[in-house]
């Protein structure tokens, strides 16, 4: 896995994706710490995004964490990651 801290990553289960910010990759334990940002649900006709930024950081196996297709945090107009109004 070649991702660095602060990159936007996702964890996928079926058609649901949890997007988050990679906090730390612990290579010796093969785990990652991820700060959740958004949960994409595809059970409806159009994908629905839930703001989960108030949730706790999660620790998971590094093989389930994937790098998001964007180049940085909060880029407006990205097809795979919603940007929330900070106001």
How do the helices and strands line up, and which of them pair or pack?
Elements lengths: L7 E6 L2 E11 L4 E11 L6 E4 L6 E4 L3 E3 L20
Antiparallel strand pairs: 1-2, 1-6, 2-3, 3-4, 3-5
Q: Main sheet?
A: 6 strands, antiparallel
**Poorly predicted residue ranges:** 71-79
Whole-number average pLDDT?
81
**Beta-strand content bin:** 35-45%
Radius of gyration over C-alpha positions, nearest whole angstrom: 13 Å
What share of residues is helical?
under 10%
Tell me, what's the shape?
Answer: elongated
For the secondary structure, the number of strands is 6
Task: Give descriptors for this structure.
87 residues; 6-stranded antiparallel β-sheet
Would you kindly provide a written description of the structure presented here, covering whatever features stand out?
- The protein is mainly β and 87 residues long.
- The chain has a domain at 8-67.
- The protein has no helices and six strands.
- Strands 1, 2, 3, 4, 5 and 6 form a six-stranded antiparallel beta sheet that branches.
- 17% of the residues are buried.
- Mean pLDDT is 81; it is low at 71-79.
């Amino acid at each position: 896995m070649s991702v660095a801290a602060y990159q936007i990553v996702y964890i996928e289960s079926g058609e649901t994706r949890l997007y988050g910010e990679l906090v730390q990759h612990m290579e010796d334990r093969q785990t990652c710490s991820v700060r959740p940002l958004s949960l994409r649900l595809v059970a409806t006709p159009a994908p629905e995004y839930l703001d989960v930024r108030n949730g706790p950081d999660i620790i998971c196996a590094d093989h389930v964490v994937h790098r998001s297709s964007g180049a940085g945090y909060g880029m407006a107009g990205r097809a795979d990651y919603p940007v929330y109004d900070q106001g």
